[in-house]
Amino acid sequence: MAISAVFFLDARGKILISRTFRGGVPPDAAANFKARVIDVDADVIATPFVHVRAATGSYDFVYVRHTNLFIVALTRRNGNGAMILAFLYKLLDVLATYMREVREDSVRENFVVIYELLDEMMDWGVPQVTETAVLSQFITQKSKIAAAVGTLQQLPGSATGAVSWRAEGIRHARNEVFLDVIEQVNVLVSGSGSLLRSEIIGRLVVKSYLSGMPDLKLGLNDKLQFDAAAAAALAAGGHGASEGTGRGGGDDDGAPVGRKGKSVELEDVKFHQCVRLARFENDRTISFVPPDGEFELMSYRLETEVRPLVWVDAVIEQRQTRVDYLVKARTQLKASAVANNVKIHLPVLPDVDTPKFQCSSGKAKYVPERDEVVWHIKQFKAGRELVMRGGFGLPSLGEDVARENATKRPITVEFEVPYFTVSGLQVRFLKVVENSGYQALPWVRYITQAGQYEIRLT
Q1: What mean pLDDT value characterizes the chain?
Q2: Which of 222, 248, 310, 457 shows a CA-CA span of 20 to 30 A to 188?
Q3: Beta strands at 286-288 and 215-220: parallel, antiparallel or unpaired
């Protein structure tokens, strides 16, 4: 991958900032981008990749649109478009840590810092350092620091070492690592109660407070890991995955060899750059040297049929001067699980008045600016069914179109279930090895949340 230049353009295609890394950048490049992307018909489907053939030669644009900005990379080589796109999104993440919001005005105000970041993140068109924790060591929001950077005898070791995302010499009084397994459930239910779409989006978020240069190994009940463990056991003369020894026995990392029916088949797995991909491809072990602080180690997706964890039935009876609501909610969780901070967003007509509601548990609040009633339940235990009754007054004359559109909006649900993953993903082990030999405390937490959770009324 070789990027010749990076442009920050406003919504009209005017250059706010440009940084050239290689020669041969056409002087009319921004104008060509404006003509091919910004000025085209809104009905034309846009892609993040644009090829240009001009009198000055052929080149390609890769861009992302963020708020009122276009961040554009120009390359004159047949580069890896996906990697360039990933770099632009990483650049946005880095800028977001230096600026409250990445917008046109904030780019104008912080152009010195942005130039410094581009110079450190890119070398001759090739990305080098992209971790905020490392960049923050020698670039701050005060632009006068740039002069001090030029007087450094040497760069921080993390900028040139093999582990660019972690500095050397980190010390913590208490060595701990926290791992959060966070899953979001996306559900779409039809008005007749049938499940139209369901998927699970998962993330493994690590908070690392470890001294030195620790090496971590993580094991999951991922189906591919279990298959690899079973193959290794058979090659060594073992009995295979179906005869794992449970908690007491396992591999050299203290993990059980695998149990039949307990594995989870993950899809679209994406790792942080600290994960050793070669090791993962060989034996499915997640091995890594973590950055200091919080970062997302891994993300995944499961497109599988998920039973809705919170089910909502709503009966709406509209009369000439009144509309009545009967809403029933129940949980479909395992016996020990509890859904916290459940919020059921029920759409209502835009011209209602005099709200009156009674709830068997929780509180209902009318939110007129969003034309909805929010039923808030602090704790919703498994197996319970709760009821909300009430209604609104209606003016004698109303807009039929607005009322008809209001009934097409779905019910949306928010909730959080601690100590539970809907996919069944489990952490089998989290091992910390460091040359100094200190004892680290690993902590694991499971959380399931509602993502795009919608139940249609019609």
Answers
A1: 82
A2: 222
A3: antiparallel
SS3 412: strand
Rounded CA separation 64/427 (Å): 35
**Dihedral over Cα of 99, 103, 109, 110: its sign:** positive
Structural domains in the chain, CATH included, are 5-160 (3.30.450.60), 310-418 (2.60.40.1170)
DSSP type of residue 433: E
DSSP 8-55: EEETTS-EEEEEE-SS---TTHHHHHIIIIISS-TTSPP-SEEEEEET
pLDDT at 235: 54
| Residue range 197-223: mean pLDDT, rounded | 92
Cα–Cα dist 28/247, whole Å: 65
Structure tokens given for 185 = 């459930």
Q: Which residue has the tokens 């695998």?
A: 258
At residue 453, does pLDDT exceed 90?
yes
Nearest to 181 by CA among 361, 348, 421, 413: 421
What is the pLDDT averaged over residues 201-218? 95
Q: Which of 186, 445, 414 is nearest to 302 (CA)?
A: 186
Only one residue has tokens 């497109």, namely 303
Please tell me the distance from the alpha carbon of residue 132 to that of residue 52, in angstroms, as a whole number: 33
DSSP for 194-229?
-EEEEEEEEEEEEEEE--SS-EEEEEE-BHHHHHHH
Angle among Cα 412, 418, 424 to the nearest 5 degrees reads 90
d(CA 206, CA 179): 5
Cα(302)–Cα(305) distance, integer angstroms: 9
Query: Is the model's pLDDT at 150 over the cut of 50?
Result: no
CA 262 to CA 271: how far, in whole Å?
23
Q: Where are the alpha helices (DSSP H) in 344-422?
A: 400-406
E strands in 280-321: 286-288, 293-302, 310-318
312-339 core/surface letters (b: 16 or more CB in 10 A; e: else): bebebeeeeeebebebebbbebeeebbb
- CA-angle at 206, arms to 434 and 249, nearest 5°: 60
More confident of the two residues 389 and 150: 389
With beta carbons less than 8 A apart as the criterion, state whether 301 and 199 touch: yes
Global confidence as pTM = 0.67
